[in-house]
Amino acid sequence: MTSDNLSDPQLLHHVHVLLRKLLSEFHRVCSQLGIPYAVYGGTAIGAVRHQGFIPWDDDVDVMMTRPDYEQFLSQAPAVLGEEYRVDNTRTVQEFPFMFSKLVLKGTLLVPEFAKDSTYQVPVSLDIFPIDNIPDDPRAFRAMSRRTWLWGRLLFLQGTPRPYLIGTSRVKRVLVYSVTTTAYWAMRALHVTPRFLQARWEKAARRYEKSSTSRMADLSMRDPENWSLTREELYPPREVPFEDITVLLPRDYDTLLRRGYGDYMELPPPEQRRNHKPHVVDFGPYTDQLR
Questions:
Q1: The whole model's pTM is what?
Q2: For the chain, which terminal residue's Cβ has fewer other Cβ atoms within 10 angstroms, N or C?
Q3: Cβ–Cβ < 8 Å for 128, 218
Q4: All residues at 6 or more sequence positions from 28 whose CB lies less than 8 Å from its CB, including other chains
């Protein structure tokens, strides 16, 4: 079905049921393989503040160090339940993101910002790799610029008109003229998502073999706010999340305050946003959710 929001409490509850299913399977597989991870972003806030989902949230984010991420991609497909698969540019030709998704087969939860993308987003859990970053501020800024450029081109290769929030009509026209031109130029030159992902990954993994004090999520526009040390991340804490168990960063308070400020204070109602889905299809789970 087509939907312009997730304000319907029943619909959002159904999304949460399937996201919890994904998170439970992800936790099971990581436990079986001995791979540490930590919930991330709004999922981490939900775990601390609500012991589950933020009530209006509609996604799940987790993070792993690069070695753990590569181990998961290599070993997880063999032990995942048959309902699940891992999507990324290595497995899906038109995949437009810099990270991987654990998805529920036969479902759709296409956000408004990706409605024009060739890749139709399933109900999924986002898995972010955390890469080493240089201690020198100038080198880090250069690295951030490179990863941001390749990451934006990767997204635009599949989505010529990104969803813009709070932007004037004039600015939207200007932005869309640039993004559409970039999209058609890459199409004309036969630039593939895998090519762009390879360039992004080369930039992101530049310091993989170096001994650095920090790591960061380089899929973000400003990775400085999402940087951390290994000691802040691991070993993770086991915490309840709804009726399951998840892993939370060891020093979650420092990380969440770095990224969000006073994360324990509820935002005003007008700031309680989700991803504004364009299409929701629960596929084989529709009857189970009624």
A1: 0.90
A2: C
A3: no
A4: none
